């Protein structure tokens, strides 16, 4: 059962990357954005979500409304790497709800390669999707929260940003490391104004995208890649998107995390501790 945070009732959550990839292998496996929408809706929050893929956003809306009684979720299409679209996204949310209490920056993309192999175009794409999107969204939302004198900003990082773990994805690891630094900077800068900012740092999470990894890196062997990834975790399993979402819900709640800012909440089954000890 999810933890219900009563102070999230009627709070407005702007959530990027809300889309749910098709659940090809298991209907119970959700992505981080969709799971976050569901978990926050279960606490009574109103979700205003965006995704570049409107079909995936509509799938999340459908799943949440089917499974959460009286869920309130709106979804729109937006490319959060483009300033004009982020400005319009925030305007739509404000026109609908008049405030933004929680911002969750969830979009992310990973591409293989190191500095010698990665093209300039792929490198720039990694920066845009993983980092510039956060810069643009926080830049538009923080002034709103400042006027409100309250708000929680939650940025999705990754254990890939904590150190090298055998995968050369230099763009992804670099940007995810930078996101932690952004959370620290924003958290300290805006602390006197009643605004908190933190990073959630997931490890190996079992989402619908694992199926894509199977075809890209494991000759289509889905069960094989699930077993392989689980073997890399001290707990012996991948995490679920709902475990990530519960961390996000905790940081969204003022009652639960009022003294937490500029911090990082690692949700990785022990990977980081095992690698760095």
From TrEMBL:
Pfam families for this protein: adh_short_C2
InterPro entries: NAD(P)-bd_dom_sf, Sc_DH/Rdtase_CS, SDR_fam
Keyword match Transcription: no
Coiled coil: none
Keywords, sorted A to Z: NADP
Recorded family membership: Belongs to the short-chain dehydrogenases/reductases (SDR) family.
Protein's name in the database: Uncharacterized protein
